[in-house]
Design goal:
By secondary structure, the chain is of the alpha+beta class. It has 2 domains: 10-101, Winged helix-like DNA-binding domain superfamily/Winged helix DNA-binding domain (Arc Repressor Mutant, subunit A); 108-229, Nonspecific Lipid-transfer Protein, Chain A, CATH 3.30.1050.10. It has helices at residues 10-18, 23-31, 37-43, 49-61, 82-85, 88-101, 113-123, 182-189, 195-200, 210-219; strands at residues 65-68, 77-80, 134-141, 151-159, 162-166, 176-181, 204-208. Strand 1 and strand 2 form a beta hairpin. It is globular.
Length: 247
């Protein structure tokens, strides 16, 4: 049986490529800087690696993604072609539509500490004047029902403009420990509640070096800015909202 809609309509032709399961999320990862297979996989933690490889191959055949082979022993890179970059406004508008029109809300099944910490990793910005290594530890509780553990820890190790994500203790002293209920912290990151409110309720705690703990909200997107890396283009107006006046 022929796969597809069997129509010459341009929407049908585009849907045959873009409406495959996981494709928009794979494109999201590529659009926000992931190049290596393992990095893309971290942005879609519930997707099997075999299926990810298949989708990347399909996107390459469609002329949307280009794979560059690396030297022996090194990982190649995936990059969007001009045709892939042309899809950026479409993917961004999908996220914008969901933020403005979706009535589903944040479900327990949507909670994903792996995706959350990956988003924090790629948005962490330390001051250039801070030349030392900074180690942030995140202890999440309240993981989704069915998780093999009730608590999981992650580490972000930042130094010289590079940020490494670790699921195991990297062996460095922790500068700031963030202990948080996963739902509450996700709500803070999505801008659905304030960090101060979550701290007052004991849902989020920042411990460690006092100066670094105070600076952490300025380094991480704790006021809803993470939406910009999950499908919402920075500065893009929401339909029906008042336009931002020019400066």
């Amino acid at each position: 049986m022929r796969k597809g809609y069997g129509q010459f309509c341009p929407i049908a032709v585009a849907a045959e490529v873009l409406c495959e399961r996981w494709v928009p999320l794979v494109l999201r990862e590529l659009m926000y800087g992931s190049r290596r297979f393992n990095d893309i996989a971290r942005g879609v933690p519930l997707m099997s690696r075999g299926l990810l490889a298949t989708r990347l191959q399909q996107l390459a055949r469609a002329g949307i993604v280009r794979h560059t082979s690396a030297a022996p022993g090194k990982e190649g890179e995936y990059r969007l072609t001009a045709a892939g970059e042309a899809l950026r406004p479409i993917v961004e508008q999908m996220g914008l539509w969901a933020q403005h029109w979706s009535t589903r809300g944040l479900l327990d099944q949507d909670l994903d500490d792996a995706l959350l910490i990956w988003g924090l990793r790629r948005t962490l910005k330390l001051p250039r004047a801070l030349r030392r290594r900074v180690v942030l530890r995140f202890d999440f509780v309240g993981l989704p029902r069915g998780a093999r553990v009730a608590r999981r820890s992650w580490w972000l190790v930042a130094q010289a403009g590079e940020v490494e994500l670790c699921l195991k203790d990297p062996g460095f002293d922790t500068d700031v420990l963030v202990t948080a209920d996963l739902r509450s912290f996700t709500e803070v990151v999505l801008g659905e509640r304030s960090l101060k409110s979550a701290q007052r309720d004991g849902r989020v705690r920042l411990q460690g070096d006092p100066s670094l703990a105070r600076a952490l909200p300025a380094w991480l997107p704790l006021n809803g800015e993470l939406k910009a890396t999950l499908g919402i283009a920075p500065g893009m107006p929401v339909p029906g909202s008042a336009p931002t006046p020019p400066p």
